[in-house]
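Open question from group meeting: does this chain pack into something compact, or does most of it stay loose? Before anyone orders reagents, we agreed to write out a predicted structure and look at it together. Recording both the input and the output here so the notebook holds the full record.
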Amino acid sequence: MAEAEGLKRGCHTAYLDTFSFQAPKFYTKFGYTELGCIDDVGIQRDVTCLWFVKRIE
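Structure tokens returned:
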């Protein structure tokens, strides 16, 4: 729904961030590409913050 709304508003790219324990495989399954990451961000330094991008058309 977010991608469809973006298209209605004239957007051409979607960006998002997630954590390694959440849903990175979900986003790659739907065509997102990893753009970057920061490792060791959790309290115990066991979490990675990930950014994803996807061209929407």
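Observations to bring back to the group:
DSSP finds two helices and three strands in the chain.
Helices lie at 2-8, 24-29.
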